[in-house]
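Anyone opening a protein record will find just a pair of labelled lines. With that in mind, the following record should read easily:
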Amino acid sequence: MNTVSRRSLMLGASAIAITPALSALAPPPAWAQAVGKQDLVPSSGAHFGAYVYEGNDLGLSQPENLESKLGHGLGINHCFQPVDVPLHSARMRKDIAAGRIPMVSWAAGAETRLRQIVEGLHDSWIDTQVDSLAALGAPVLMRLTWEFDLRYTDTALFTEMWQYVHERFAPAPQVAFVWCPTWRAYRETARAEPFYPGDAYVDWIGADGYARAREDKPEYNYRTFDSMFDTAHAFAQDHGKPFIVGETGVHRAPSNPVQAAWLTDMRDVVKSDYPGLKALVYFHRDGPEGDDNWRVTVPDGGPAQQALAAIATDSHFNHAV
């Protein structure tokens, strides 16, 4: 199987055939059937989750091994949903049964495809996704075409597409729409506001950001959590929406082992300065690109793993739906 990078997941690329998800599965537990998408927002603290790569290159997250190493369950399991691939329904049902909130990063494809979506050319595929999510019988976080500020230029088309897809999801009212560009859209490129489709079409506002080695640019070298997400958090509060860090990670480099300290600082600053942050999701994967080493389990049981475990077990990050 070819190894797919984080960038490939972001583009929604898929060229691997898979077996459609099983349809005859057990119904969701009673707690899941009794809550709606509004109940996903904790009154205090935040949910903590992860995307955990265990060899599936279609974006399927398998969190059990990481949970075992952390000594605690995750509140969110984050899967990626490539274009024209059946929903990871079996995985999502398993997560719901285990008390995890499913989060799906749902790819819409290249900008030319956005126009096709608005024109109704992909209604059949969208409706299949709607039916699959509605059948789960539990609330789900959906990051529609995440990090859009990196690959789209036509903001009017994007917002039209977002509103169109949102309307087609009316039969699945428990799906919470997560609008999630990169942190730079808020702080550096001023691209957040032009891409915003309106409060009526957004349930959560988010941002993605990674701390990586950039010795050539000191201001970006292992950038702190606060210097990436403070403006995004303020944007969410201004719009009256819960804030989610949809993806974050700190690069593991033997020459500069800062993972544990960075994660500890993140934990402290979130608890003290981010009252609107209601979900935080780690990207636990190593990949083929030079800065893709985000796992904290190397070495197994080391300081970075202990730092992430401290987040997972902290009462601030443990809130049942």
The longest helix spans residues 259-273. The first strand starts at residue 47 and ends at 52.
